[in-house]
Amino acid sequence: MELAYIPSPSRGVLYLGPIPLRGYAFCIIIGVFVAVWLGNKRWVARGGQAGTVADIAIWAVPFGLVGGRLYHVITDYELYFSAGRDWVDAFKVWEGGLGIWGAITLGALGAWIGARRRGVPMPAYADAVAPGIAFAQAIGRWGNWFNQELYGRETHVPWALHITSSTDGRVPGYYHPTFLYESLWCVGVGLLVIWADRRFRLGHGRAFALYVAAYCVGRGWIEYMRVDDAHHILGLRLNDWTAMIVFLLAVTYIVVSAKKRPGRETEVEPALPAAGEATEATAATDPDGADTDAKAVDFSKDAEGKDAEAAKDQDPGDAGSEDAGVKDGAGSAKKG
Predict the structure, then answer these.
(1) Bridge-partner residues for 19, per DSSP?
(2) Cβ atoms within 10 Å of 168's Cβ, excluding its own
């Protein structure tokens, strides 16, 4: 009998009337909000504008969800396309199954699109959101706890995870809580990136690359402990190979980038014009502004020219009559 263990929830979904409230989905949503909130604070601290991170996240998050699901479905296709399986289940993201490698890859593509539309450099944006992504992963891993999935080998340590479900081939028992190990590791990765960024003023994407490299180190040993079905290559799980390759790419980027572009960006986002500058710029192009004034001046000049031409064309007799009238009036004044 185990005296201490981590209990599993009896179910991962609650119903508010006909509306299902899934623990896995809530963990993902909370993680996204944390990543955007922290990323915005870091972006503003680097000289960016508030709201830019959220605007780009509108592109990055949907791309990331699609990428994460695609990676999972492709690498575990037998769960959805083998005999006796329903391929429609591949679209049921709420039941779990998001591959971080696909999420980061397509999420980066979405962020690149959003960054180009916003006019900001993608490496600087990636540096700002890097620790937030790590914290989002830490929160998201608790979704696996709600689903009773992705646990490790059987164990009797005091922090063992008690699996009670027997669906999809699960065997109830006590196992290593690999979801908890990865969650704690991701918190450490986020803190490491924040510290290193402050200490060494990382720039040009190196903070993001540090996050990737550090995460891969932890994912390697955690993946080795998992017992869920996975494809193996030369005795190692596919995700172990992916972690090693991505780690080497991230470290290579840090080294090459530090040599070619040392230091940090001096400007991460074009500054908005001041109020006076905006007024002058608007006046220079506003059809109701300076251009209208210029047209008014031209119109007054045209009017003066027309008056002068009218005076020249006036009948000399009329002018003489006016002179005579003036003289008569003057004479009458003298008589009076």
Answers:
(1) 16
(2) 11
Evaluate whether 32 touches 135 at the Cβ level (below 8 Å). Answer: no
Single-letter amino acid, residue 180: L
Alpha-carbon distance of 207 to 183, in angstroms, equals 20
Distance CA 57, CA 132 (A): 12
Instruction: Output the pLDDT for position 330.
Output: 43
Q: How much is the average pLDDT of 52-57?
A: 97
CA distances from 197 to 53, 111, 251, 322 (A): 18, 21, 16, 90
H-run or E-run covering 211: helix 206-225
Amino acid present at 34: V
263 token code pair:
């230091």
- The secondary structure of 36-101 as a DSSP string is HHHHHHHHHHTT--TTHHHHHHHHHHHHHHHHHHHHHHHHTTHHHHSTT--GGGGG-GGGS---HH
H or E segment and range at residue 16:
strand 13-16
Q: Is the C-alpha dihedral spanning 128, 134, 138, 140 positive or negative?
A: positive
Phi, psi of 35 (to 5 degrees): -65, -45
The residue whose two tokens read 């039941």 is 95
User: In a 3-state reduction of DSSP, which class is residue 266?
Assistant: coil
287 vs 207, residue with greater confidence: 207
